[in-house]
Predict the structure.
Amino acid sequence: MDFELNEQQRAIVEAAEVLLARHAGAARAVKLDAEREADSALEAALDEAGFLDVALGDETGFLEAALVTEAVARAGGCIPIGARALVAPGLLGRGVSGPVAVASAAIAGPVRFAAEARTLLLDTGEEARIFALESGDAQRVRSNFMFPMGRLQVDAGRGEALGPGSGERLRAWWRTAVAAEAVGAMRAALDVTVAYVKRRRQFGRAIGSFQAVQHRLAHCAVRVEAARWLVYETAYDGAPAAAAAATAAYVADAAEKVHAETHQLTGAMGFTREHDLHVWSMRLQALRLEAGGLASHRIAAARERWA
C-alpha cells in the first residue's frame, strides 16, 4: 500500500501552506478570538486561489479537500473550512458561496460559525435541510473554544429538504470534516509541544532529551499519523457512513489523549494564553464534542456495521 502523497497533492499542500503562512497563525487566531470573529480575509484568499472548491476539480477530489482542511486547521485558520471544503460539496455535489455552518436539530447549544454563515446545513434526522441564512437567524455568543459561536434561531421547516437519506449523508461528511480539522489541530499541538521540550531545560539538559518524554511524544505522533490516514481514506472513498463514524470515533479518542499529553509535557506554561498550545487545545475540545461526540460516533459505527 502506498502511503505517499503524489506530486500534485504535495503541490496543493505546499501552496496552501504558503498562503496560510501569510494569512493565518496563532497570533492571528488569538486576535480574532478576542474580537469573536471569523477570518473573512483568509476565507476570501483561499476562495480566490481555488482551495475551497478543490473537491469538485477535474483532477482533484475529496482527498485533496481533506488535505486543505487539515492544513488550514494546523495553521490556526479561523474559518469553517471543513463545512465549506468537504461537507457542502459532499452533500450537495456543488460548491456554495460564503461561510457554511453545520448543525443538528437534535443537539442544542451554540454552533461554530453560525453568526457568520450564509448557508446552514441542518441534520433533522432522516433528511438534511439547507437554509440561506438572513440577518437575525443567529445570535453571537461568547466562546472559550477559539472558534466564533452563534446560537441559531431558525424554523427547521423553513429550509429546503434535500431528500430521503440526506441526513445520513450529511452526518457522514460532517464527521469526516470534523475529523480532518481535528487532525490538523493535533498536528499543530504536537508541533508546539516538540518545540517546547527542545527549549525547556531541567537538570542541565533539554527535557526533550529524556527517553520518557520522547516515548510519550512518539505515542502521540503514532496516534496523529493513524488518524490522518483514516481521514484520507474516508474522504477518498466518499465518506461511507460506517467508515466516517469509525474514523470520527478514533480521531475523537486520539484528540483526547494528545490533548492530555501535550499539556502534561508543557506543564503550567501550556495552560496559559501566553503559550500557543492553547489555540489548538481549546479547538480540539470543541471538535471532540461536535457532531455528537465520541459515544455517538461509536454507536453509529456499530449500528452501520451490525444493524
